[in-house]
């Protein structure tokens, strides 16, 4: 039986199934030096979703190739939240504390955000190569669909044109797939993984 994480803010309950530490393996498809066509390469991954009582989950991902090279691939840091307009009770901008009571005080208030597609969510992700991404999407039951909405990058960073991601919990495991479109190209499978909860 699933138990809500202790202290999880009410508005994050649609994302509650993500909270915890996950570990597993996946496949990434890319064209290595000397290869004419992209090939699949196995990797190991650890992900942690956590919360500190605020209105967003923190996200960190670390990945290594499973071959003899053991190359550490780019990590990701981010925030996941249910999409809604900011109110006086929300902190910011900067370190300015919010004032007053939050608008979402009970399940009925939260339910007002639900659409036919599920609860709208927003994800911000930062990559060490100088790229920041914003995703819009929906969570419905234990499935999340995301599509890149905006991205910024430092000059000279390696970028792609568009990205979609899907996460889902199946028989207790966290499965995800990531498709990307390179500049001038269409969406193609990039990576996928199956992770088990470890904590």
Please supply descriptive tags for the structure shown above.
single chain, 1 helix, 10-stranded antiparallel β-barrel, mainly beta, 51% strand, 199 residues, Lipocalin, 10 strands
Describe the structure.
With 199 residues, the protein is an all-beta fold. It has a single domain, classed as Calycin beta-barrel core domain (Lipocalin), CATH 2.40.128. Helices cover 3% and strands 51% of the residues. The chain has 1 helix and 10 strands; from the N terminus they run ββββαββββββ. A 10-stranded antiparallel beta barrel has the order 1-2-3-4-5-6-7-8-9-10. A hairpin with a 2-residue loop joins strand 6 and strand 7. The radius of gyration is 18 Å and the shape is globular. The two termini are 15 Å apart. The model has no long low-confidence stretch (mean pLDDT 93).
Summarize the structure.
This protein has 199 residues and is mostly beta strands. The protein has one helix spanning 107-111; strands at residues 20-30, 39-50, 57-65, 72-82, 119-127, 131-140, 143-153, 162-170, 173-181, 188-197.
Per-chain topology:
Blueprint: E1 20-30, E2 39-50, E3 57-65, E4 72-82, H1 107-111, E5 119-127, E6 131-140, E7 143-153, E8 162-170, E9 173-181, E10 188-197
Antiparallel strand pairs: 1-2, 1-10, 2-3, 3-4, 4-5, 5-6, 6-7, 7-8, 8-9, 9-10
